[in-house]
Amino acid sequence: MQKVDYEDLSQRVYRALKEMILNGDLHPGERLAQDELARRLGVSRTPLLSAFTKLEREMLVQTVPRRGTYVRTFSRRELLDVFEIRLRLEPLGARGAAEHATADQLDELAALTQRYEEIVAAGVPERARHEDLAFHTLIMRMSGNVFLSTFVESSNIILIANVQGLIKPAEASLAEHRELLQAIRARDAESAEALMYRHLESSRAALEQGLARAEGG
Amino acid sequence: MQKVDYEDLSQRVYRALKEMILNGDLHPGERLAQDELARRLGVSRTPLLSAFTKLEREMLVQTVPRRGTYVRTFSRRELLDVFEIRLRLEPLGARGAAEHATADQLDELAALTQRYEEIVAAGVPERARHEDLAFHTLIMRMSGNVFLSTFVESSNIILIANVQGLIKPAEASLAEHRELLQAIRARDAESAEALMYRHLESSRAALEQGLARAEGG
DNA sequence: GGTATACGGTTCGTATACAAAATTCAAGCG
DNA sequence: CGCTTGAATTTTGTATACGAACCGTATACC
After folding, report:
1. Domain presence at residue A3
2. What's the CA gap between A14 and A11, in Å, rounded?
3. Is pLDDT at B12 greater than 70 in this prediction?
4. Within its chain, how far is the Cα of B43 from the centroid?
5. Domain end (from B56, B71, B86)
């Protein structure tokens, strides 16, 4: 029997904070005072500090020694830098997914695509972003490259938490997701890689434009 | 005046442990008992735990809840996975370096290349590996992409700590380093990217062969 | 004889305690 | 009136304390 894996308090606090940052409950630049947050979460400062450390290595928060911990803010340049990395790594992940995915994973990806379609149709951008993240995250996991999926996931969370409303319309992504699903299902590594690259490249262009507009206006 | 930046105990412990792993003072699979290590380093368990957390997110150690923390071991597949990522990211970094390097950084890179040459000539493989790491790390820093340099650095430390003797001869790398230096100096982004890719691809091939040999024999 | 179980010792995870640095705010000075 | 200075307060970083989970050994049982 599989033992239900116990989760540390630190781990739970970590996930809670990550979720709060992703959802914008903690906004970029906000100071994370240890005492206050610990009280608010009902834990001592110890697991909280551990969570801060994890988040810091993921670039989601920034700690200044003897000063405090803040939700990290990203410059326009930095966001594009993160996207540039995504653009290099996710195609590799898509290729790996086509090569190594299990049947169960393929089913799950199909289900995710289906759900994405429904949510896009329902027109709830908030949920669509979450679903889009889940789609990309699953593909990276399917590649079987743990380092890749871990890192790409962090990158994508940074982006999602910081570029609300600056991404391309979900309707455009939907078609590309469908094509990706097909290529991965067909075990066509070349196509999967190319499709992911094109998918992200057009997103990157949209982001660059969106950021320029946001800065200019 | 630039204030000399104060370093946490946690941070110093973190760097010390990282160095120990890199140098093989702590070998893969070794258990890191909190009490013993804390005594050995002359600190309490608090900063040590913080260091563990950092190292864990860098994949250098692995913590099993309620069991302990161990120096991470990597399978053959995992090492190649890490290298695959390097192969995608470092060319991006080389391109960025050619585009954004400052004059000071170019001088520093030239100095590093010079030192690498001397160390290779002296024939101390231990030091050559360190110098090789420094060369690649600097190029990533020169790109100005913080996320890239942070992540690639972690990847490279994993590799260096785990593939002793399985890498290609430093003499071969030296010529490629010189070419890279030239391309970056000339601000030739295309060449820099391509050269880095070729440099790493031949290293990857050597590693793959080395690992197969190590496993087979 | 081999497996299961209970007990003691150890180690981990979390909470709390304490010292030092940083921030605040008000009073003194230019 | 603004700037500097200094003590009170807050907050951080580190050490220690404590309860609970895990490990090893020895004993009981099949």
Report:
1. no
2. 5
3. yes
4. 27
5. B71
Q: Do A88 and B92 touch (CB under 8 A)?
A: yes
pLDDT digits (tens, 9 = 90+) for B75-112: 999 999 999 999 999 999 999 999 999 999 999 999 99
Q: What's the domain range around A46?
A: 9-71
User: What global pTM score does this model have?
Assistant: 0.94
Band (pLDDT 50/70/90 cuts) for residue B5 is low
Distance (Å) from the alpha carbon of A139 to chain B's nearest alpha carbon: 16
Residues A102 and A196 occupy one common structural domain: yes
Residue type present at position A150: T
Cα–Cα dist B89/B109, whole Å: 19
CATH of the domain at B95: 1.20.120.530
Per the CB < 8 A criterion, the answer to whether B131 and B112 are in contact is: yes
Residues B55 and B139 reside in one and the same domain:
no
Is there a single domain that holds both residue B177 and residue B89?
A: yes
The count of domains in chain A is 2
Residue A2 has pLDDT above 80, yes or no: no
Q: Tell me the CA–C1' distance in angstroms for B161 and C20.
A: 38
Distance CA B25, CA A130 (A): 43
User: What token pair was written down for B171?
Assistant: 């003499």
Nearest CB to B148; choose among A10, A81, A92: A81
Tell me whether residues A89 and B89 touch, CB distance under 8 A: yes
For residues B84 and B62, state if they share a domain. no
Whether A164 is in a domain gets the answer yes
Same domain, B170 and B113: yes
User: Which is more confident, B51 or A4?
Assistant: B51
- In strand C, the nucleotides that come within 7 Å of a protein beta carbon are 11-17, 21-23
Scan residues 65-84 of B and list those with Cβ closer than 8 Å to A. 65-66, 78, 81-82, 84
Kindly state the percentage of chain B with pLDDT values over 70: 97
The CA-CA-CA angle for residues A118, A120, A122, to 5°, reads: 70
Same domain? B103 vs B203: yes
